[in-house]
Amino acid sequence: MTTNLRIAFLPLNDVAVLAAARERGFAEEEGLALDLVRTTSWATLRDRLVYGQVQAAHMLAPLAVAVTLGLSQQPAALAAPFKLGVNGNMLVMAKDFAAALAPDPAARLADPLGTAHDFAAAIGLWRRKPIIGVVHRFSSHALMLRYWLASAGIDPDRDVVLRVLPPSLTVEAIHAGEIDGFIAGEPWGSAAIESGRAEAVAIGQRIWQRGVEKVLAFREPWLEENPETTDRLLRALARAAVWCDEPDNREILADILADPRYVGQPSDLILRTLSGTIVPRAGDAAVSCPDFVLFSREATPFPWRSQALWIYSQLVRWNMVEPSAETEARAAAVFRPDVYRRALAGSDLPMPGASMKLEGAVGAPLGVGSRKGDLLLGPDRFFDGRVFDPERIEDYLAGFAPQH
Amino acid sequence: MRIVIIDDSGLRATVLEEGLRDAGYDDIHIVPPRGAFVARLERMAPDVVLMDLGSPSRDTLEEMLTVSRALARPIAMFVDQSDEAMIGAAIDAGVSAYVVDGLRKERVKPVLELAVRRFNAFSRMQTELEEARTALADRKVIDRAKSILMNQRALSEQDAYALLRSTAMNQGKKIAEVAQALITASDLLGGV
Q1: Full residue range of the structural domain in which residue B98 is found
Q2: Chain B residue with minimal CA distance to A135?
Q3: ipTM score of the complex?
Q4: How many structural domains is chain B composed of?
Q5: pLDDT tens digits, residue range B128-138?
Q6: Exposed e or buried b for every residue in B160-190, given b needs 16+ CB within 10 A?
């Protein structure tokens, strides 16, 4: 018997795992028929999920936490048992703004700390407060941009204007001069660079080497009432993720995503960052960045509770939520490693033994405790060298200079 | 009650506005979601904001509602969360509504219901228009294919059509598809 599942998504490269599960037969093998619902705003994706029009959604991890905490319209307990990807964001700025930064874009990307300080100087030279597009208040993009700007003493709430706009409108907005730059998931940064109006200034992976990005989010009650369907979906996605990470499959994957039903952008543009290369300025040589986006290796889909707590710590840091032990516990509980373990117990994927870890503590690939198989964690440093200990959030937050 | 409709499609907004005016609402403004629409909205201080659920600008609007005082305390979509039928109908119709806090649900509900009806009517209109367009295009293709068959195989118009239809049935295709294939083949072979 085939089970139908409706899953909402936004047109971005990191819908890859869902698209591959549907187009390459992984869902079908588990007796699932996926109806992937293309959506143009995070608000509508959220509403479709919260009001039960879809069973699951390709969601910004911080948005899943925010909806659960009642910070984004109708509160609803969401559950994220599977990460759809790690990394994949790029900050691009209009050419005339970027002219005040290091002349070689590749050098900027390699030195995020130096570039943050150059950025601070560039703000003073700009004709107004720079307007930077972010895809959502509760996006990994916005949190990472804030983190990066603040490292150079820039107050993201005072020294720049963060303007929310959907990824698909970013390129148009930079052309119209409505924004001076933006941070978004691919292929939108590459599209803006290709259009000749913008240059790469920073990439997510150089800010946090293994940055939490999209999750597969469910309504928690639905997840609890449908364990068997959930498990089948997670198994299908885990296999699809392995397929997506295989370099030989990247061209097919880019062709799938290029279809208007998914991203609707040229497949060579999509392929560029999928295969780990960036062209930081139109006409420049490509820069290799093999960890630009990860789907499966290093147990990428595993929802580490410490990553939900890192999101919570940033929401507290930027005064988006009042800290409390209860709120912290609810934020942590959005990520569901227990469901991931139950669904994939029978698979041959490496299975982390713990549910929390220090974030930002791995400098070189590290073998860690795994129930089966070898689990190698890649380097996950923050560019400023800070380490997030989920047991000591207050100390972590005290370590940042006061912003106001 | 001041109602602002945020919409890019002039037609849909007009359809909705007319309906609201007929129902006795007269303080209605249409704002396209471009440029500084957020600032305009702020000055208008609306009680209800209606917007197409499919509009990519919803995130921008919500951010504005979060940081500005355009609506004292906006509620997304629905005043009464228990009214699931209403919520489902609104999402199906593609309506999203933001309502100022304190506005009683008896006052808002008729506006929402009307918006749902009008959005549905609009999408029906679009579908019918689309179907009419397709039908016209199909007829042109079929006429051309018929004349090719009539010229090259000396068939009557009726027989030419019968041949197209039986071919379509045998191949499980639409007549227009078979006609198009015939035209393409004929063009390739240099026919008329």
Answers
A1: 3-103
A2: B59
A3: 0.88
A4: 2
A5: 888 888 888 88
A6: bbebbeeebeeeeeebbebbbebbeebeeee
